[in-house]
Amino acid sequence: MLPGRCKNAIIISKLPIIQTGLKGVMQAQFADYELTYCRSVEELTLLQLRCADLVIADLTGNCNHPRSVCEQYYSLLSQYRDIHWVFLVSRIFYPLAVELLMCPVSSLLSDAEPIESLVNVIQAGNTRAERISKALLSPPAVPQLLDHNVRSIVLTLSERKVLRLLGKGWGINQIAALLKKSNKTISAQKNSAMRRLSINSNAEMYAWINSSQGSRELNLPSVYGETTEWKTEASKETLHW
After folding, report:
1. For all residues of the chain together, what is the average pLDDT?
2. CB 81: neighbour CB atoms within 10 A?
3. pLDDT tens digits, one per residue of 98-107
4. Which residues does the UniProt record annotate as the domain HTH luxR-type (predicted)?
5. pLDDT of 68-109, one tens digit each?
6. What stretches of the chain show up as alpha helix (H) in DSSP?
7. Contact (CB, 8 A) for 216 and 222
8. The CATH number of 143-240 is which of 3.90.550.10, 3.60.10.10, 1.10.10.10, 2.30.30.240?
9. How far is 74 from 69, CA to CA, in rounded Å?
10. Bridge partners of 57?
11. Which neighbouring-strand residues pair with 142?
């Protein structure tokens, strides 16, 4: 960013009270941002996206087509990777948000987060911010995964590598490119690991990956690790595959 250039943020929410609340946070904590507002993802313009440094999207209200909304954001995430995308996610949206919106340039926050969490994520930027908040990973998680019998499950080396990269916010396409494998192979390894762990959904899988047990099994410090840690681990994956 050029010195002295004002940064741009877009707030997306169909609820005026949410827009007003986020406006207050941004004006109080990030006065160097110029703000624009939209009621939905459909209202975004190309000019807004090209100029934006930050997008805060509210995924907490009632929605008749949540998958369609998430898929629209998914498309934008792949096109505008210089933007830090912050999604405020309700439990209803959580499985879809994890499946479609978690990537290296996005952060998922619970709609029950304190304001300080949002401020910290924005301050960290899209290279150092946590990818998914602890509040979203907190119980109710997956009780059966805490059973001591799970500790005896042995994942293959390939399955571990795939889960580790998924836990760091990588998508199937990115992992396939990094490891020089087909998308079909990476998906099969992910599904095989889920079967071994008796996991039935992507949301449960990410809950396990980011649990203390999952971090221990996969040798992951945590999903909140520094970017330099992630780059080092990704480099090791490439060298050892």
Report:
1. 80
2. 14
3. 888 988 889 9
4. 148-213
5. 999 999 999 989 999 999 999 987 788 888 888 988 889 999
6. 16-29, 46-51, 66-79, 94-100, 115-128, 134-137, 157-167, 172-179, 183-196, 202-209, 212-217, 227-240
7. no
8. 1.10.10.10
9. 9
10. 12, 87
11. none
